[in-house]
Amino acid sequence: MKLFDNAIGLISPGWQAARMRSRLQIKAYEAAMPTRTHRARRESRNANQLVKSGGRSLREQARFLDDNHDLVIGLLDKLEERVIGAKGIIVEPQPLLRGGELADDLAKQIRAAWSEWSVSPDVTGQYTRPVLERLMARTWLRDGEVFAQLVSGTAKGLKRDKGVHFWIEALEPDFVPLNQDVPGSNICQGVKLNDWGRPVSYNVYKNMPSALYRSQDLKTVAAENMLHLKFTRRLHQLRGNSLLSGILIRLSALKDYEDAELTAARIAASLGMYIKKGDIYNTDTDQEERELDIEPGIIFDKLAPGEEIGMVKSDRPNPNLQSFRNGQLRAVAAGSRGSYSSISRDYDGTYSAQRQELVESFEGYSILQDAFVAAVTRPMYRSWLNMAIAEGIIDVPPDVDPGSLMNAVYSGPVMPWIDPLKEAKAWQVLLRGGGATEGEWVRARGSSPADTKRRRKAEIDENRKLDLVFDTDPANDKGAPDDGKSREDDK
After folding, report:
1. Which regions are flagged for Basic and acidic residues bias (predicted)?
2. Is the domain of 157 the same as that of 53?
């Protein structure tokens, strides 16, 4: 083939070049070749360059929609509910004895101290831990990232009468400068890195940057004292970008379209009727101006000769609006790890269809939940526990395995039950077959196994003390009644 091309080149070099160009096009992917109908848009910049050029704009657009767009407000509210929940991330300490058994007394001691600290964990004293976690999750998903400084010991302006001297200072991404790059010092976008690209420290504004009347000085926070939760889609990305980055245009366009349809519907609803004047209509300059009072069931007989009443035809509201809007909402759900039913509040469908959507969508919620636990809850809990042990609030017995001291189970909201009876029967089958534990069953209802068992035992003991008998206690359940029908069925 090469010899043939060379021979053609002696006669017609242009023909040879065209043949070689066509051969390269055949070898390449079709999608890689720009055409009239395919523009083949490409992105050659790295992740940090993208965030630096558009991160602030995306963040501010997402904040505007969170303040003014009902769909975005509902979307972020639903992500808060599914990722963090009303009770926040539940932490169940699991320290073990050297023999491998659970150290119950130590676990109870840690749970009590953790619950007390969770009442007021932040430096402002305004939020409980569940509220703080929900706000941090919303900031993370909307703005793309959130920071939190760990404050231990004593500090000016911070006072705690009892409990662990440990606080959280939650920070919006504006506190870490996005445009601060010092190549010689390995500082990129306000984060100092080592030679491996690992964060060493963060440069943080002492006050909110938008507060012009306050100082814009920076302070350096060591990486071990800073929590950084970011939403990324690429490797080597230092700062996060908004979860809504891929659907911002669609959301803005959908809001504009709905506003236009609403305006058209309001105009159509304001239109009434018109009087058509015929050829034999006679203009009478002395005739007084007529005023027509229209009411339901009216019989109007005051038309002049040649006049005719006509109605203004309206095509509003648009009958295709709902189907078009639902299609757009499905695209929004696909680009935000949400579910269509939750975003649109449209719950039509069978039990199987609803549960299938829940099963598929909750894996996305679980991924976000795992990211939040890994970047915020787990390091926060371990730092708090180290401080509690150092202050002597937690007394660690000598027979506890030191390697298991930080063990804990972190659980957030679980998939809701569409039909509780069906779900409960399924869990009973799993328990009887050895495929699940009672603790997993309780966590599937969004509760703590230890708290549930403690309250359950207190309830049963009190009923027995007062000689109260309820069928909620399995000991009082005598089984199915032995009636004639059951005996016939046994035969």
Report:
1. 475-491
2. yes
Q: Provide φ and ψ at 93, rounded to 5°.
A: -60, 140
Element of type H or E holding 274: strand 273-277
Same-domain status, 356 and 452: no
Residues whose CB falls within 8 Å of the CB of residue 328, separated by 6 or more in sequence, listed in order: 250, 254
- Answer yes or no: do 324 and 460 share one domain: no
Reported as a single tens digit per residue, the pLDDT across 423-464 is 889 888 999 999 988 888 888 777 778 888 888 888 888 888
pLDDT tens-digit map of 285-298: 556 676 767 777 77
Tell whether 43 is covered by a domain: no
CA distance 409 to 270: 60
Q: Find the distance separating the first CA and the last CA of the chain, reported in whole Å.
A: 87
Q: Dihedral sign for Cα 116, 122, 128, 129, please.
A: negative
The structure tokens listed for 15 are 């023909």
Q: Report the alpha-carbon distance of residue 245 to residue 261 in Å, rounded.
A: 26
Q: Does a structural domain hold residue 447?
A: yes
d(Cα 329, Cα 72) in Å, to the nearest integer? 11
CA pair distance 412, 89, nearest whole angstrom? 5
Token pair of 436 as six digits: 């699940």
Q: pLDDT band at 487, cuts 50/70/90?
A: very low
Whole-number Å distance between alpha carbons of 315 and 269: 10
Render pLDDT for 236-257 as a digit per residue (tens, 0 to 9).
999 999 999 999 999 999 999 9
In 3D space, the residue among 176, 161, 182, 166 whose CA is nearest the CA of residue 240 turns out to be 176
Between CA 159 and CA 141 the distance in angstroms is 32
Do 188 and 51 touch, CB atoms closer than 8 A? no
Helix (H, G, I), strand (E, B) or coil at 29: coil
In a domain, 163, yes or no: yes
Considering only residues 199 and 21, tell me which one the structure prediction assigns the higher pLDDT: 199
- Whether 40 is in a domain gets the answer no
In sequence order, the β-bridge partners of residue 122 are 168
